[in-house]
Amino acid sequence: MNPFAYQRATAPDAAIHAVTAPGAKFLGGGTNLIDLMKDEVEHPSLLIDITHLDLAQVAATPTGGLLIGALVRNSDLANHELVKTNYPLLSEALLSGASPQLRNMATTGGNLLQRTRCYYFTDVAFPACNKRKPGSGCAAINGFNRIHAILGQSDHGATSPETCIATNPSDMNVAMAALGATVHVQGPKGKRSIPFADFHRLPGNTPQLDTNLKPDELILSVELPPAKFAKNSHYLKARDRNSYAFALVSVAAGLEMNGSTIKSAGLALGGVAHKPWRSIEAEKSLTGATPGPEAFKKVADIALTGAKGYEHNAFKVELAKQSIIRALTVAAQGVQA
Q1: Nearest in space to 59 (alpha carbons), one of 75, 44, 76
Q2: At the N or C end, where does the chain have fewer CB atoms within 10 A?
Q3: 57, burial (CB in 10 Å: exposed 0-12, middle 13-18, buried 19+)
């Protein structure tokens, strides 16, 4: 690990001022950043410890939603009574991620910024990775791409500086996408709010960038709208083993029912794209539909429109479709108390 300086911040303004130093990064739970520093992927010159900022609360909002501080631990959030009662989809997603020890350290803000687990990004022995070393190419295109993207990727060949087929690894992000969250941040010019759909990026021609957060901005909180899917939701995670594994495909599904028909829906996929993949068209197709195999198959086909697999991950297209059908079927049956 390279040498670095350490500084503790006790107020957001001071933290934001400190992070303007060249090579500075915020340190929260550290469950991702420290690993990447040990692997020589990240080389911050200054770590600004933000764990003493007053950002660890979960509270109901005046409009009936929920405000989650950036430093709320994943385990605390998953087991918070308001989350279990009103947003069981988020609780399920959080508890399916990582290990109990990691969930006790990982924070909401850090989880938003969790970086890809692409082998060619995390192992510096591979010289070609546009995300780690912009302009170097993409070794995953012709490599072992079992865990990689099938939607929204940039694919111009292995040597193109724009190619990237990495995926976002977070379970929490998938649930928050389906729930329509908003991220509140603060920078030198003040505060702003970013709709969750705009927070993470597709690779485009800048695959090294994961989010639209500016380098000198601090995540303050995530706001969830009033709960619509408390009674009918499900998080499904397909992975190679039952514990401590990232999703091959995950589905966050929520249904708002009006009698026997669907009033509205939230649907997002994980493990398939550079960002949580939410299909508004698929959600709209469920409005007014009667829950069942026919409606859910139609939704799955819409959500996977344009999907493209590679040598080792072409199976994800059908896996994602079947996972959507299964997640919606379970959601329609209702959340078990």
Answers
A1: 76
A2: C
A3: exposed
